[in-house]
Write a structure and sequence with these properties.
Layout (H helix, E strand, L loop, with lengths): L15 E2 L2 H11 L6 E5 L7 H4 L6 E6 L2 H13 L5 E5 L14 E6 L5 H11 L3 E9 H8 L9 H9 E9 L4 E2 L6 E8 L9 H12 L6 H8 L6 H7 L12 H12 L1
């Protein structure tokens, strides 16, 4: 589909990559091999897809919500007898990540308006994530990479860093897209932590993180006393060993996991 015919839909947060140098750098970060199962979220008109299709991977699954693009990718795969390609005409937010079998590499230019909840699910629900390479809003990428005791550190930082090592790829200016977004984008890379370092109780960890960061400026001890009356007490606070004036943003992802274990054991 030529660039002139492509119409971005504001309702889907569409901004299409057109810079070939940027596209190639993203593909390189994926490090695709013949043994990989690869998923692309939101392939759109196919800037990344056209290159991924040429890679000798075992599977290439495309998740596309847009009717036109989904049909175009399905037709291309059929016409060229590309049996390793499967197109899911679906909103990626509704995809059953838990059902993925084997190791997967996941890539995509994520719409800004759904990127955070989508990444929240992917890092915690994909059984064997091998690597993820996402293009997201630069501000969100900075929040994800943030370290404790900084202004940008929050619930999303803690959650994703509890499952993955987060690396900065590179920044992309608006001019690389059509139509150009109003903000800079950034490529961010997730490399899953070893299985023995992952949260043992992700469901309760998610609850705890959200409770703690709802009032991030308040002292954590007070927040927990009010929000978790039946589960939290002075003994737990003494056991974890933090000063009474500690706030949520001062705890590392590991600290949150330790606190979760003490509260919900």
């Amino acid at each position: 589909m030529s660039e002139e015919k492509i119409i971005a839909k504001k309702s889907l947060g569409q901004h299409f990559l057109k810079n070939e140098s940027v596209i190639n750098k993203i593909i390189e970060l994926g490090e695709i091999t013949e043994n990989d199962q690869v998923m692309e979220i939101g392939p759109g008109p196919g800037a990344l897809t056209s290159i991924l299709r040429e890679k000798p991977c075992q599977k290439l699954w495309l998740l596309e919500k847009d009717d036109t693009f989904a049909i175009n990718h399905e037709n291309y795969a059929k016409e060229n007898q590309l049996e390793h390609i499967k197109v899911f005409h679906i909103d990626a937010l509704t995809f059953n990540w838990e059902n993925l079998e084997g190791e997967w590499k996941i890539m995509g230019n994520l719409p800004y308006n759904v990127a955070s909840p989508m990444m929240w699910d992917i890092v915690s629900k994909v059984p064997n994530l091998k690597k993820a390479v996402f293009m997201i809003q630069k501000e969100v990428a900075e929040r994800i990479r943030a370290k404790e005791d900084t202004k940008t550190y929050g619930a999303l930082s803690v959650w994703i860093q509890s499952f993955c090592k987060v690396e900065k790829g590179f920044v992309i200016r608006p001019s690389a897209f059509t139509p150009p977004p109003k903000v800079d984008s950034e490529i961010i890379v997730f490399k899953p932590l070893p299985k023995n370092e992952l949260p043992t109780d992700p469901e309760n960890l998610a609850k705890l993180i959200k409770i703690c960061f709802q009032q991030r400026r308040k002292q954590l001890h007070g927040i927990l006393q009010k929000a978790l009356k039946e589960k939290y007490n002075e003994i737990i606070w003494k056991e974890i060993g933090f000063p009474k004036e500690t706030r949520a943003e001062m705890l590392s992802p590991k600290n949150f996991q330790q606190l979760c274990t003490l509260i919900y054991k």
